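Lecture 7 notes: from sequence to structure.
We start with the chain below.
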Amino acid sequence: MSIEIKVPQLPESVTDATLVSWHKKPGEAVSRDENLVDLETDKVVLEVPAPSAGVIKELKVENGATVTSGQVLAILEAGEGVAAVPAAKSEAKAEAAPAEKAAAAAGGKLAPAAKRMVEEHKLDATQIAGSGRDGRVSKGDVIQHMAGKPAPAEAKAPAAKAPAVKLPAAVGSRNEQRVPMTRLRARIAERLIQAQSTAAMLTTFNEVDLTAVNEIRARYKDKFEKAHGVKLGFSSFFIKAAIEALRKFPAVNASIDGNDIVYHEFYDIGVAVSTERGLMVPVLRNAEALSFAELEQGVGDYAKKARDGSISLEELTGGTFTITNGGVFGSLMSTPILNPPQVAILGMHKIQERPMVVDGEIKIRPMMYLALTYDHRIVDGRESVQFLVAIKEALEDPARLLLQL
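Predicted structure tokens for the same chain:
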């Protein structure tokens, strides 16, 4: 029986997708639920699984093509036990693409963008060192490999010997690589330009003493992890503090819809995650109802899914307020850019010990600069300053988080 493999239904906000790479070729056997092809949208890479075991009969769309919901991608000849045919398996292994060889050799996983480059440039992917977690090969790893790679042997045509010519010593490398933007990177660029051109962005700063938070974490981290199976980090404290500040200043939790201001009476907090494909912002729904452990677990799970490419569009959609942490990269201070249609974003930074005057004495304290970028059309300067003060007070006296003060 022949089955049409189609593009899954895309969300309303996504009109089309790019076919990044096929994992199977005509004549190759597949197992039920095996990933056949990667589709890249503006936000995530979608996997299209096989609905049944069988053999790929025909591919209807080539790599790099733009596809839409419901479009036929391939024809699968389904049948019991077909996926286990030894000959088909042997041939598939013998003709494995360079990207598949790399995944096996490195013991890790190739990012979709990296795999596409490997196949496009016909590289020996087994020679590419992966810098990601568990040896994962990123697009940056491929570019770095290409920058130091000599021309392929087959490209070097034999030439007659010529008299030796003494060339001047090379002063420096002027190599460059030109690669197309991924859909996600292009979408990020579009949204950044949109935010800068439509919002009246302004940033206000404050600093917070994290002594009390550090003491709580040091005192309870072992018991917390034993009880909940997750580490007690800083994320849950900042999310809780932000929610309490948002309760006091609802304009900061609002969004703009045309000429309307939408005041949200719930708190869907986006937490920015840096991935090799770009910045993603998974959303913790109804974060006000989550415990410290649930917040830590949610942030950790979303970060893992975003980085391994398994996060869904629904998990990246919406959000009423965003938190981003440049401190993990060593940033001491920055001005984050809005995530439209939201009207504010909180920037966390590096924790650094600094001398502070406390009760008339100079003491060394773990300090962090906070930045709130906001849309001045909706949020006034007074509200933005008081919002950061509310976060500062909650973190310097965490009992406020339990009492919602």
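Points to note: The chain has a mean pLDDT of 82. The first helix runs from residue 86 to 94.
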